[in-house]
Amino acid sequence: MNSTIIKVSHLSKIYKTDVLETVALDDISFEIKKGEFVAIMGPSGSGKSTLMHILGALDKPTKGEYVLGGENVQDLSDDELSDIRNRKIGFIFQAFNLLPRTTTLKNVIIPMIYGGIPKEKRVEIAEKYLRMVGLGDRLQHTSNQISGGQQQRVAIARSLVMDPDMILADEPTGNIASNQAEEVMAIFQQLNDEGRTIVMITHEPDIAEHAKRIITIKDGKIQHDSINHARKIIKLKKL
Amino acid sequence: MTELWELFIESIGTLRLNKMRTGLAMLGIIIGIGSVIALVSLGQSSQKAVQSQIQSLGSNLLTISPSSQRSGMVRGASSTTTLTKKDAEAILSSSSVTTVKSVSAEYSSRSQIVTGENNTNTTVMGATPIYLEVHNIEIASGSFITQHDVDSMTRVVVLGPTVVEDLFSDSSYDPVGETIRIGGQNFTVIGVTVAKGSSGMQSQDDRVYVPLTTAQKQLYGVNYLSSISVVANSSEVMDQAVNEIGYLLMARHKITDTTKVDFRIMNQEDILSTATEVSGTFTTLLSGVAAISLVVGGIGIMNIMLVTVTERTREIGLRKALGAKKKTIIYQFLMESALLTFIGGIIGIIVGILASYVYALVNASTFTVSLGSVALAFFVSVAIGIVFGWYPARRAAGLQPIEALRYE
Questions:
Q1: ipTM score here?
Q2: Cβ of A79 and B327 within 8 Å?
Q3: What is the tally of structural domains in chain B?
């Protein structure tokens, strides 16, 4: 449980326009080990979204180094980054980002198509994870036929099918009702108990409370980085 | 292959999501391909019509006519009087001519033909019985000129259907047994030929046939021929036949310089290829016009695909976040646009075939659709999808995932 999944050293991100130079991240360094459940907190404008984009291999840092699962990410090409995202990162977005008018099963299958998983196995794997998030009976529903919480659970299933090194969740409860948010947190804790590494970006303290470790960012710098002793545990009810 | 198939299935699904737009985008291609097919088959059927008309003259046919290419000094009346019945007999019987099946000696001129109240000016063809076979003429009623008619210079006449209509004001009238006057002399009508249609040069229906000897001696007072028609054994030996006949006639006319021959041998194939070329140009022109509409259709596809890319920016961003490579996104959009034009192309082919069928039905012409133009239209339509889909697909693939995900 001690191997390092994420190693960030002296990371900076500077956005430049003609007149302005905005420092979004200012010399950030930290490590995340396998099996951790980290919440990255901060108010809007703190730089946490920028950090999420870099951790998600969606954007490249201006300076510094980012190693994900043993691979150096900052100087890869676009296509190599696509490959890293596919194999190593399971994305969960605030707006779910499921394909509209597409069944939950097909949505969950998409990463496996890009990952070259043989066709015969795809449905089997997708069904396994959809059952795990309690949507075994919603395989053929399209995303506009299910609730926000259910959509986010589909997204969780989608993030798991490639067996990634980390699950990267960006405000996962931002668009759903609070009781459904608890369900999502319960699933996260269960996944974490099974040994999965979770990095969750949020601005809500009561959501961050579910994590084992909380990193607080302000003005592009790490303000606090500590173990969450007051961790809130949610018993996973039968979904 | 399976990946391509999956992409295909998925693209069909996407296109079905927006049926109205898909249909409208296809419309340009449908019209383009449809008009290419229809116009090409229209051009080809007219080409075939010209060909079959010329072929009905006899495709193995050589026509020998006198020419005035003798040296400038001794020109004059002699130049058009050089072909004789003896020449015709020699062509058929000479041992040096091996490729000839039949020979028809002919003398034609124009005369005024009169019945009771009507009259017409038409070609009078002095012919022998072999004329029927050489020129593929059929008799609709009565009979044709016999050898006996030629030998005894009888005054009988066979009418072409146009002449029947001109003289008797009714094309269905059977004039066999009537008496008509040609050049002031009475002739008995013994037959009517079947209509052959215009050959593009001269109507074979607007003429009358009299025995060759009658025409030469009694009507026009000449002893030479205006043409000799020769049927070769097959279309392959046409060139050989031309050579053999040429040398024979040169020997008979005592000419040694090939630039000073006093006759001309025309090959029916030459006329055919000229006519085919003309209608081929016509077909090309029509296809060109149709091709322009295809290009316009292609631009329509590009337009729709650009709209689609903009509309699906978030989807593209998500797909890239989930691991789609540039190539994958390009393939996805290329497949969609190629599918649009592919389906449009198939519908266009059906529409085009239907249109040319209706055209053939209305004009009572032959219905032809060339497989070549269908295959070409098919490939062109897919190619248009790929060419005009390329730019939108590249644009989609170039989107950065964060910007695309943020796009509202």
A1: 0.90
A2: yes
A3: 2
Domain termination site, one of B236, B261, B286: B261
Residue B93 and residue B41 share a domain: no
- In angstroms, what CA-CA distances link A208 with A4, A181, A221, A227? 22, 12, 18, 12
**Residue length of chain B:** 408
Tell me, yes or no, whether B204 lies in a domain.
yes
Of A59, A82, A162, the CB nearest to B402: A59
Q: Using DSSP bridges, classify how beta strands A71-72 and B119-127 pair: parallel, antiparallel or unpaired.
A: unpaired
User: Of B125, B200, B186, nearest to B154 (Cα)?
Assistant: B186
Which residues does chain A have within 8 Å of residue B318's beta carbon, measured at their own beta carbons? 97, 99
Within 8 A by CB and 6+ apart from A96, the residues are: A143, A148, A151, A152, A154, A155, A175
Q: Are B92 and B200 found together in one domain? A: yes
Quick check: pTM over 0.90?
A: no
B123's enclosing H/E stretch is strand B119-127
Name residues whose C-beta falls within 8 Å of residue B338's C-beta, 6 or more positions apart in sequence.
B382, B385, B386, B389
Q: Is residue A120 within 8 Å of residue A139, measured between CB atoms?
A: no
Q: Is the residue at A11 inside a domain?
A: no
B12 & B133 share domain: no
Dihedral angle at the C-alpha atoms of B251, B256, B257, B259, nearest 10 degrees? -10
Nearest to A189 by CA among A126, A225, A237: A237
The answer to whether residue A89 sits within a structural domain is yes
Say whether residue A114 is in contact with chain B using an 8 A CB cutoff.
yes
Lowest mean pLDDT among A65-79, A93-107, B2-16, B153-167: B2-16
Q: Estimate to the nearest angstrom the gap between the alpha carbon of A113 and the chain centroid.
A: 20
**Closest CA relative to residue B160, chosen from B129, B193, B199, B120:** B193
Residues of A in contact with B324 (CB under 8 A): 82, 114
B332-371: pLDDT as tens digits = 999 999 999 999 999 999 999 999 889 888 877 778 787 8
Q: Judge: B323–A56 Cβ closer than 8 Å, yes or no.
A: no
Q: What share of chain A is helix, strand, coil (3-state, %, to 5)?
A: 35, 30, 40
Quick check: B127 and B210 in contact, CB under 8 A?
Answer: yes
Q: Does A158 touch chain B (CB under 8 A)?
A: yes
pLDDT in tens, B12-63: 888 888 888 889 888 988 988 888 888 888 887 877 777 776 666 666 888 8
Beta bridge partners of B122: B111
CA distance, residue A239 to nearest chain B CA (Å): 26
Q: Which domain holds residue B367?
A: 2-53+274-406
Q: How many CB atoms lie within 10 A of CB A33?
A: 15
DSSP B366: -
Kindly tell me if the per-residue pLDDT of B213 is higher than 90.
yes
Residues 173-232 of A with CB under 8 A from B: none
| Domain-located, residue B246 | yes
Banded pLDDT at A109 (limits 50, 70, 90):
very high
Report the number of distinct structural domains present in chain A: 1
Max CA distance (Å), chain B: 105
- A237 within a domain of the structure (yes/no): no
CATH number at residue A41: 3.40.50.300
Interface membership of B401 toward A (CB under 8 Å): yes
- Residue A3: inside a domain: no
Picking from A97, A106, A151, A160 by the largest number of B CB atoms within 10 A of its own CB, the best residue to mutate is A97
Phi, psi torsion values for B66, nearest 5 degrees: -70, 145
Mind telling me how many Å the CA of B28 is from chain A's nearest CA?
27
Instruction: Decide which of B261, B288, B304 is a domain's last residue.
Output: B261
